[in-house]
Structure formats: structure tokens, C-alpha cells
Amino acid sequence: MNKNNDGFFSRKWVLRLTALVLAIFLFVYVNGSKNGFLRQNTRDSNRNSALMSNKSATIEMPLNITVDNAKYVVTGYPQTVKVRVNGPSALVTTTNNTQNFRAYLDLSKLAPGTHRVKVKTSGLNSELRATTKPQYINVNIQPRRTISMRVSVRLNSRTLDNGYTIGRPRLDTDVVQVTGSREEVDRVSRVVAFVAIPSDAKNDLQRQVTLQALDKNGQTLNVVITPKTTNVTIPISRSSDNSSSSSSEDSSSSSSSRNQDSNDITNSTTKESSTSSTNN
Known about the structure:
The chain is an alpha+beta fold.
């Protein structure tokens, strides 16, 4: 009987120990699954929060002008504006990277004159809010005008220090189109090609020169010249022996004559330009 009792108690403790081990295993398993589920939920929640949270970004965009360019010239506006975009993080990031929207001024219904115009945006997602800096811009709308003008050459010097002389300049293009606002074009007095000649030049010079439109006071005007450059050829030749041996008085007289010829070229060109402007 004692043996039976010992066997019974032995089996009883074995069962208890087994049950304890199973309970511990089950506890660890359930607790681990719960923590894993919570961690997954936390990651998903964080991901969703990142997607749904708001952020802002400031983007520098070119400023477009909506106007009839064939009739009007617009001045006074900047080339770019800053656009602050606010909304869901994912949309803001995408917009900042692609910049697939536009900032513009709508001048299509405005008459010539000075106007204060609001900067608008288009092409943004409806969930995004945008503000521009500046929000308003003052612009000047003027009728467009185009005239034809002759080009005159202006040299930094008419004499050389090495016994060589400068001939009459030749231009590839001597008539150009000047376009701009009527007010600005009316101020154009002449179109000039400035050429600098080295004092030790011995051979003909060829230069591609950017043209400038000047008013009567020699100030550069804000107009478009077409073409904007021209090729200038400056003939340079050695002075004759007779000229070299002539008196300083004759040389001075010859130099004065050349300067007078140069002035005559410029003056006749200016007059023809003015006539062209008046006819237009």
C-alpha cells in the first residue's frame, strides 16, 4: 500500500511540474504575441501618423505673366516668387520635389497703366494651402511698339600709337528692330555698337558686339534689340611714308578730318533712325 501511495504521489508531482511548465510556456507565448501585435500596431500607427501629419515647405517658383504679348509690354515684376505650401506631409514632399504647379499674374483683363495685382497659383492638390511672398505686385502695362533703326559704331579711339591708322568700320547688320513699351521706345535716340581698339593694333579687327539702345543723354534703355549682336570689322593699315614725314600740323589736320568724318557717320545714322521712329 505504501508503494502505491509513493507511486501516486510521484505521479502527482510530475503532473504538477508538467502543468507548471506548460503554464509558463503558454504565458510566454501569449505575452510575446501580444507584444508583437502591439509593436506592429505601433509601427502602423506611427506610419499613418507620418502620412497624415501636416508640414510646410517654401518653394521658389518662376512668375508667369498672362497677357497679350503681341499688344503689351509688362514691366516691374520679379522673375520669381516664394510659395509656402502647407498640408499632408506626403503631398508637401511630393510637391516640393516635382514643383508641378505654377505661380502667375493674370493681366488679361487689365488696361494699360499701373496696377497692383495678386499673385495666384494653379496646379496644386486641393488638400494643400498656398501663400505667396509677395502676395501682391505692382506692374506697369504699356502698349508694345517696334521700330527700325540704323546702328552706329563708337570706337574708344580714332588714332593708334604705332604708326597705324583706323579705317571706316563695317557692320554685318546695320539695321535692327527695337521693341519695347511705347514710352521707352520713344526715348531711343540711337543704337550703338561699342568697340574697344588696342593702341598697338596692327591688323584688321573683327568683333562680335552686343548692341545698346541709348537715349539723348547716353543712358541705356530697357528695350529688346533684334538682332542683339552684330559683327564689326575695323580696317587697320600702316600709315604711308609721306604721312609719316609730314609736318605735325598736317598730321593734326588729317586727324581732325578723320574725327569729323566719324562724327558725320554717327550723325547721319542718328537722323535716319529718328526718321524711322517718326514714321512708325
